[in-house]
TrEMBL record:
Keyword Zinc: no
Pfam families with a match to the protein in the record: CTP_transf_like
Record-linked SUPFAM superfamilies: Nucleotidylyl transferase (SSF52374)
Name of protein: Nicotinamide-nucleotide adenylyltransferase
Record's catalysed reaction(s): beta-nicotinamide D-ribonucleotide + ATP + H(+) = diphosphate + NAD(+)
Keywords: ATP-binding, Cytoplasm, NAD, Nucleotide-binding, Nucleotidyltransferase, Pyridine nucleotide biosynthesis, Transferase
One example GO MF annotation: nicotinamide-nucleotide adenylyltransferase activity
Keyword field contains Oxidoreductase: no
EC class of the enzyme, as a word: transferase
EC number from the UniProt entry: 2.7.7.1
Subcellular location field: Cytoplasm
Position of the signal peptide: none
Listed GO CC annotations: cytoplasm
Length: 174
């Protein structure tokens, strides 16, 4: 029996965008099963991390539905100790053989733990980036073309635009 390759991809997805999507389309061609981990799952309602883990699970699940591989979407909370973060993640996911990431810390930790780590090309990082999309939402600029259509609906449905705008306001006190 041919052994299946199960790959892992981790991101914060604040929000999920077309750069993430393009990579996952490529990974889906190279592997049989895909685990997508939602990093920093405990974070939400701040300007860098406006969306909850649940909202991000919905984003990723909706976007990858079209991919021709069996997928799992799993939120992972950060922990204070990098040295045991990989074991923490492994305890929460199905077994996997390959990790796809460009994040230097993520790559280092998985390499030290004995996993094969593969890099991925970057697609228009100036445009397809969570930072740029959040900036555009805040500035009232066009951002919808930078994410898959399903993500636009999810951000609107959770009042994400007003949430980001509200979070940027200063407490003027009363
Ligand atoms: P991210 O969403 O910034 O990026 C995810 C991946 O997508 C990266 O490999 C990145 O290079 C790629 N990407 C982004 N834009 C792209 C584009 N335009 N084209 C192609 N690829 C693009 O997420 P991240 O910061 O890499 O996520 C790592 C997560 O792991 C974080 O949540 C972090 O907190 C967590 N982590 C936690 C610990 C700990 O708790 N001790 C340790 C290490 C990592």
């Amino acid at each position: 029996m041919v052994k299946k390759i199960r790959a892992l991809y981790i991101g914060r997805f604040q929000p999920y965008h077309l750069g993430h999507h393009r990579i996952l389309q490529t990974i889906a061609e190279e592997t049989e099963e895909l685990i997508v981990c939602i990093g920093s799952a405990q974070m939400s309602h701040d300007l860098k991390n406006p969306f909850t883990a649940g909202e991000r699970v919905l984003m990723v699940t909706s976007a990858i539905r079209e991919l021709p591989v069996k997928s799992y979407v799993i939120p992972i909370m950060d922990i204070e100790r990098n040295a045991i973060w990989v074991s923490h993640l492994v305890s929460l996911t199905p077994p996997f053989e390959v990790v796809y990431s460009n994040n230097p810390l993520v790559r280092r930790l998985f390499t030290e733990a004995g996993f094969e780590v593969r890099g991925t090309p970057l697609y228009r990082r100036d445009l397809y980036s969570g930072t740029e999309i959040r900036r555009r939402i805040l500035a009232g600029e066009r951002w919808e073309h930078l994410v898959p259509e399903a993500i636009v609906e999810i951000i609107r449905a959770c009042d994400g635009i007003r949430r980001i705008q509200d979070l940027s306001e200063r407490d003027t006190g009363e």
